[in-house]
Design a protein that fits this description.
Elements (H helix, E strand, L loop, with lengths): L2 H10 L3 H15 L4 H13 L2 H25 L33 H10 L2 H13 L11 H16 L13 H15 L10 H4 L7 H11 L6 H16 L17 H4 L1 H10 L8 H28 L8 H22 L3 H4 L1 H4 L1 H8 E6 L2 E4 L13 H13 L5 H12 L15 H11 L18 E3 L4 E5 L9 E5 L16 E4 L3 E3 L13 E2 L11 E4 L41 E7 L3 E7 L14 E9 L6 E10 L3 E8 L4 E3 L2 E6 L6 E9 L4 E6 L15 E2 L4 H7 L2 E7 L3 E10 L9 E5 L3 E6 L3 E6 L7 E8 L3 E5 L7 E6 L2 E7 L6 E5 L3 E8 L1
Parallel strand pairs: 24-26
Antiparallel strand pairs: 1-2, 3-4, 4-5, 5-6, 6-7, 8-19, 9-14, 10-11, 11-12, 12-13, 13-21, 14-20, 15-16, 16-17, 17-21, 18-20, 22-23, 23-24, 25-30, 26-29, 27-28, 27-30
Length: 839
Amino acid sequence: MTDTTRRQAPRSVLSKHEAKRCRLFARLSKIGFTPVLLLLLASMAMACSDDAKQSLSDTAKSIIKEKKKSAGKSEAKAPVPISVYTPPPQSPLARKVHPRLYLTPEELPALRQRLKTLYREEFQKYVNELDRHFDDLPESKIGGILYLDTKNYAFLYIIDPATLPEFSFGHSREQYGRKAIEHAMYIKRETRHDRQSSAGLQGDNGGYLNLSLAVSYDWLHALLTLEEKRTLADAMIRLYDTRDDEADPGNYVKLSNQVTGYIHSGCAGALALWGDDLGPGYSDKAQEMLNFFNAVFLERSLAVGDKVFEGPGWGEGASYYMMGITNVSFMAGAASTALGENLFFKHPFLRYNVLYLLYNILPLKLKDNYYLSRHDTNSLQKVIGSSTGRICAISAGALQHEDPRIAGLAKWMMSESGFGQKMEDWKYFDPRIDYLFFKFIWGSAEVTPLTPEQAGMPLTYKLALGEIVMKSSFDKESSTHIIFWAPKYWYAPHAHKDIASFTIFKHGSLALDAGSPKNANDFPRSSSAREAVFHNILGLYDPDEPEDADDRNFMNFSFSARSEADHWQDEEYQPNGRNYIGEIKALESSADYDFVDYDYSAAYRGGDKSKASSAYRRFAYLRGPENQEFVLIHDLVESPFEKRFLLHTAFEPAIADDQITVTNNFEVAHGRMIVKSLLPVQKEILKIGGEAMWFTDADGKPVKSRGPYVDWGAYWTGSYRAEIRSKNGEYLTVMQIGDSRTLQAMAPVTKIASAVCSGALINGQRLVVFSKNTTPQRSLNYKISAQGLVSHLVTGLTPNKMMQLKKNGNVFLNVKTSEQGVMYFKDDPQGSATYEVTE
């Protein structure tokens, strides 16, 4: 018997189930299970029925997954120490004055004047509603209306009916104040449990438990007795002491939909209590809570939004954004007045917040609404509705003095854009729910609406976490809408693995994120939609990637991020850190084109092994008239694995030779995209999808899904994907975007190639050249044949360098490259011409 036979013999006598159990036990051993525990598990497995054995196997797998998820925590460094925070000098908080949350004594006269003039009708309606419900018992009020009425009656106390004789009030100032105190004392009972949830923080119709207590304490300060102040203070301290541990520094990222609510515990109380003499121990606790506020809100929420997100947006998709940014905004509003600085203006993350909405609205109205670009943590997020209206109202009101341009854009979005609704038409509209904050405190009656063009908005914008949006116009029906994902950082909560992916909408969905695991019952659902294989990437296929025979192959990246890294200065967010996954080498936009050069090599670093030593995707969008818009994608990847260019489509694509045709004629949609593969030369093009194969892994195994993925479901979540497969590491793909009613054939496309560059000449009029190297080039050359003026977009050159341009060996132009290493010029080759660029 040979050595090989001896090694194989024991494997051959194991049953399939026994072999699987052996692999599981080996993996459990690796993550720290002792021999005694493994022996116990093995004994249990031998005695179990087949069903029980499978259950045990599933349990073991779950343990492994949970161990992996918690591995980062076990390796976690000590959190950044919480420093002592001192309020800004002369701020209302530093001066220890009340009120200071949302309102200050200095602001009250101007607010009263606005109520008399701008909001006279609404304020009287508001007072009438509160008087009508004055005798309602607090315990009869459901969800957020209890929290809101607490603030509503406190507002009538602080605004003081005696100063507004123009209005009719049913009660006195003190009666309104006492009603608010009655509500607050009832609310404080809700703090007597160990754990706070987002549902407890935010009621069905809005409102916040922590902020209700804090506002009551602050606005009713002059009316409250010392005992009442201590009672409310004790409740806020209890909320802080029983806060969710994910709110603590170093435990979990803070810009996550629920955590943004968790951190209200402590933060709201700090802003209300700090500086007040309530007796022994209170001052120290208030300072501790203020330090917490600085650590988790100012540093780990707002500063992270500026430094890690690097722009407005959210890492969890549109629906979670609606909750998360609202949580952040209400805390920012309270803090702004307390600290004496407008945090909405100070922090770009908040200042440009409405741009996340503007640039994610997908063109083409369907079923009487517009929709925000999808993400795999949510189903469809409608644009026209109260969620959009409230977010725009906050921006318009909070920025009207410091940034009238963005305030005007927000006002336009909520009023004249076709994306908004009258406040009175909002779902669940009630003056008690909406008027206090969205009409009075953040009112925007004096703001002049500005269209995107009037506000000077560019057609291309980089949003948070590398979401680069490219548009042909701001036309809400016919605009081209493209997203290219080029993140620098991996920010953990619900992030999807769409690194270097793209989506394209033109007269309907053409290239989309596939699948959706969280949807209503009338909408298709699939598992694992966040995985890499369900995005439009250049995937790397490793047949040995699944750890177990039952696992799926998702062609995943190999970085290993830490979800506990929550401060922008954490080592994980520094170059070569675990959460540092890519770098935009170039980003340039003009009226004619957009160009992005994205290095995501770091996404393949770490883990058990690296799948690629280098990975770059260059993305160019050429604007033009109808049916004359093009996208060019140049991929350079150094990896021993097979490469797969993935394209997810709503409906079945047609494949002919090296072309893929995508058509979307669902309902009013009429989009078409024709895709031509220029490189690699040797490749296989195929499509996967349809009945029972809606979503499959890289091995063609279906993942769990609830179909059928047809019509409305397919339009948004896809039903097919096309793949271009090759071992070659260079891909060049050209896409033409247009109208299915008139775009019948692809424009002539000629491949351009030399030893140092690859490119495409389109229609004999537009040329794009990509370098085959990943470092800036001091020279390159190429040859084209065309008659008439040709636009040359040459990329990958040394930035900010005067270059000499030769045509057929003769110098004819000196051109300085841009800061992004791009040269753009026009010339008539008059037939065949060789161009050479040198420093």
